[in-house]
Design a protein that fits this description.
alpha+beta, four-stranded antiparallel sheet, about 100 residues
């Protein structure tokens, strides 16, 4: 899977609110942080649990991804998300910071 394919799959998993699809993008020993000040979600089970909880209140999710910046095994990519959370409109902008596995 290329970086661009991975990013598109992440976007699609979020728009579909699909925790299993999101978790499948990570290695078994992944360390996933949604916020640098919170404890990480460990492994695919941790990613699935996090996504199951956070996306359950989301609806009408639309995600736009920026152009990735790749340096070695590190990737950064901005995102902009419009959605409803418990019925209230929310706009969320952020950046994914990824350390890729060799494969």
């Amino acid at each position: 899977m290329t970086v661009t394919e991975w990013i598109d799959a992440y976007r699609q998993a979020w728009e579909d609110r699909d925790p299993e699809a999101a978790a499948s993008l990570f290695t078994e020993d992944a360390c996933y942080r949604s916020n640098i000040y919170e404890d990480p979600h460990e492994g695919r089970d941790g990613v699935t649990a996090y996504w199951s909880g956070v996306t359950s209140a989301q609806s009408d999710v639309s995600v736009q991804m920026g152009q990735p910046s790749v340096e070695g095994d590190r990737v950064t990519v901005e995102f902009w998300t419009n959605m409803a959370v418990e019925g209230d409109p929310v706009t969320l902008a952020g950046c994914l910071l990824l350390d890729l596995a060799p494969d």
